[in-house]
Amino acid sequence: MRIRKQIWDEFWRLVGAADRIALVTHKAPDGDAIGSLLGLGLALKRIGKRVITACHDPVPDKFRFLPGASEVLQSPDGIAPDLLIALDSSEPARTGRFAGLINSPEIDVLSLDHHPTNTGFGLLNLVDPDASSTSELVMDALEAGGLALDESIATCLLTGIVTDTQAFRTPNVTPSLLLKAGRLMNAGAPLYKIIAGTVASISYIVLRLWSEALRGVRLEDGVIWAVEPLEMRKAIGYEEPGDGHLVHLLLSVAEAKVAAVFRMERAGEVEVSLRARPGYNVASVAREFGGGGHILAAGATVPGSLDEVVARVLPLLKAEARREI
Ligand code: AMP
Ligand code: MN
Ligand code: MN
Questions:
Q1: Nearest Cα to 140, choosing from 173, 108, 184?
Q2: How far apart are CA 145 and CA 217, in angstroms?
Q3: Cα angle at 72 between 69 and 207, to 5 degrees?
Q4: Is the pLDDT of residue 1 over 80?
Q5: Which residues hold their Cβ within 5 A of ligand 2, which is an ion?
Q6: Ligand 1 test: best mutation among 94, 228, 274, 281, most atoms within 8 Å of CB?
Q7: Over 90: is that where the pLDDT of 168 sits?
Q8: What pTM does this model have?
Q9: How close is the Cα of 214 to the center of ligand 3, in Å?
Q10: 33, 134, 170, 260: which could form a disulfide with 225 (CB 3.0–4.6 Å)?
Q11: Is the CB of 69 under 6 A from ligand 1?
C-alpha cells in the first residue's frame, strides 16, 4: 500500500495551519522511533514551525550522535501544541506518559506509522504497513511536501531505515527503498557509520547478557527461545530496557522458523520479543497477549512470572511454526 498524494496534501495542510507542533514517539525507542522523530522535527523547524520532540524514555546512547538527540523531552508537563504527531506508535499507550496528551480532545493528533496493528487513533492516520519504517514514511512525507533533505535530516532518516531493516536484510526491502537510501546518502547521510554504530554493534555487557541467556536456549518444533530472568540481568549489571535484540541472533539459526526472547525487566511482567521467517506471523500471537507489531517482528508485555508466560506463549508459537507455508 502507498499513501495517496491527496492524503499527504491533507497532512501538509494540517501542518501548515499549526504553529506549535509536538512530535512524540514510542517508549523504549528504537532507531526508527528516534530517527523519524528527529528527522521530521528538523524538517519542520526548517520551515519555521515551533517544534518539540518527546519520548517517554531517554534517547539510547547509540542514537545520541543524531542531530537534535539532546533536545528530546521526557515529560508532557507544560506541552500545549496546536498539533501533535505520533510517530512509529500503533496506539496511544505505546507513547507512555504522552498517551494523555494524545487522548486529549483539545489537541489534533496525526499518526504516522507502519504498524499493521495501528488502531487509527489520529484525526488523520498516515499508516503504511508496507513501508520499511516510519522513517521511510517521513521521507515520503517530505518528498510529497516538496521539502529538501539536508545532511542532518538524511542522517536521522537513514538511521531509522537501517535499524528497522537490520541494514537492508528484511523482506520488506524494495528497489524503491534502496533508491531512497541512495538519495539520503547523496544528501550526506553516512551509511557505513550508521550501520557500524547501530545494527553491527553491541556493547560488551549485552554480549555477556546474551552469553548467559544462551546457556538456556531451546529449539523445539521450529521455535527457538531464550529467557532472561531479572536476577540474570541484575547479576550482570544490565539495568537498561531491551537487550540489544538477542532475538535476531536466535532467528538466524537455520532450523528456526519463529524466535522468542522472554525478558523480565521488572518484577511481575515479562517483555516478549518475537520474530518470524517470511510466511509465518508473530503479530497475531503478540495480539493474543495484548501486544502488537509487525507480521515478522512483534512483541507484548505479559503479566506473570517467566515460567507462566513461557508456558502460555510457547504453544501458540509452536502452532504458528507448524503452519504449512
Ligand atoms: P521488539 O522485539 O521490542 O523490537 O519489538 C518488535 C515490534 O513489536 C516493535 O516494532 C513493536 O511494534 C512491537 N512491540 C514490541 N513490544 C510491544 C508491546 N509491549 N506492545 C505492543 N507492541 C509491541
Ligand atoms: Mn519502533
Ligand atoms: Mn518502525
A1: 184
A2: 48
A3: 55
A4: no
A5: 30, 32-33, 88
A6: 94
A7: yes
A8: 0.92
A9: 27
A10: 260
A11: no
The pLDDT tens digits for 234-252 are 999 998 888 889 999 999 9
Q: What is the pLDDT of residue 179?
A: 98
Confidence grade of residue 298 (pLDDT, cut at 50, 70, 90): very high
Are residues 25 and 88 in contact, defined by beta-carbon separation less than 8 angstroms? yes
**Which residue's CA is minimally distant from atom 18 of ligand 1?**
300
Ligand 3 mean position to 313 CA, how many Å?
24
Q: How many CB atoms lie within 10 A of CB 242?
A: 17
DSSP reduced 3-state for 281: coil
The full set of domain ranges for the chain reads 5-197, 204-322
Ligand 1 neighbour 244 (Cβ under 6 A): no
CATH of domain 5-197: 3.90.1640.10
Overall size of the chain counted in residues: 325
Which CATH number, 3.40.50.1360, 3.10.310.30, 1.10.287.3510, 3.30.2290.10, labels domain 204-322? 3.10.310.30
> What is the mean predicted confidence (pLDDT) over 264-278?
97
